[in-house]
Amino acid sequence: MRSTIRAVLSAIPILILTCSLAGPLGAEVTSQYDKGLAAYNSGDYKAAYNFTLPLANQGDPAAKNLLGMMYELGKGVPQDLARSVIYYRQGAEQGDQYAQYNLAVSFDSGTGVPLNYREAVRWYRRAANQGVSAAQYDLGVMIEQGRGVNKSFQKAADWYQKAARQGHVQAQNNLAWLYEKGQGVERNLVTAYAWFDVAAAQGFESAQQKRDVIKAALSSGDLRKAQAKSAQLKKTVLQPVN
After folding, report:
1. Are 105 and 111 contacting, i.e. CB atoms less than 8 angstroms apart?
2. Is 8 in the same domain as 116?
3. Is 3 in the same domain as 45?
4. What single DSSP character describes residue 9?
5. Does the reported pTM lie above 0.85?
6. Is residue 183 part of a domain?
7. Residue 131 needs a FRET pair 20 to 30 A away by CA distance; which of 92, 157, 163, 184 works?
8. What's the pLDDT at 5?
9. What is the pLDDT along the chain (242 residues), one digit of tens a residue?
10. How many Å apart are CA 2 and CA 172, to the nearest integer?
């Protein structure tokens, strides 16, 4: 149930948002960061590094996060996992939510830093509190499994709910499982069907299979309720944005 967003981060540039420097040079810095981000997304990693390094040296946390990615993935620079963590930590401590998320994943996977689930939970929580859906999902997984934190299906369900309503398909699937089993939430097959159906609509194959199993167990009246609930969720649930 682990998130794979980090592994395909270059394909999801929305995870790296904007430069946070303010003041008279703010527009110039933002433009330079945008150029670095555009170069990174186009595959011109050397240019991305050249645009981003001066910003990081000036203290911009978003630039530090991008540099951390470059060093972790070996894009435009020799791969250096320890250095990637240094940049993630600097950006995270300055409040960049995506650096916080990437630092959490580093601790969670032992990438460039010793495995430490408690630290992973701490940084997932900070990013989750800033609205990063991937962090909300991963924090839910940690809490559900009791890794680095006390196990609690109820708290896991709360975080899955937050991520699910932002369009995080794995969170939608996990939340549906909890409703089906009655773990952390009151057992409700109508709601389980609805969340499985939402996840299935986003291409999550196992959710489609689970939805169909539950469908066979529902009465005709409950099925109508479940389909109506799903339709309403589809109108309000956003596509993943972070």
Report:
1. yes
2. yes
3. yes
4. G
5. yes
6. yes
7. 184
8. 35
9. 333 333 223 222 233 333 333 334 455 556 888 999 999 999 999 999 999 999 999 999 999 999 999 999 999 999 999 999 999 999 999 999 999 999 999 999 999 999 999 999 999 999 999 999 999 999 999 999 999 999 999 999 999 999 999 999 999 999 999 999 999 999 999 999 999 999 999 999 999 999 999 999 999 999 999 999 999 999 998 665 56
10. 13
* Structure confidence at residue 238 (pLDDT): 66
187 found inside a domain:
yes
Tokens 């050397």: give the residue. Answer: 46
User: 171 and 102, same structural domain?
Assistant: no
Burial class (CB in 10 A: 0-12, 13-18, 19+), 136: buried
Residues 5 and 94 in one domain: yes
Task: Map tokens 């934190």 to a residue.
Answer: 149
CA distance 72 to 95: 20
Classify residue 137: in a domain, yes or no.
Answer: no
Q: Residue 181: give the domain boundaries.
A: 152-242
Return the residue matching tokens 């609509």.
201
Q: Look up residue 211 and give its two tokens.
A: 């939805």
Q: Does residue 99 sit within a domain? A: yes
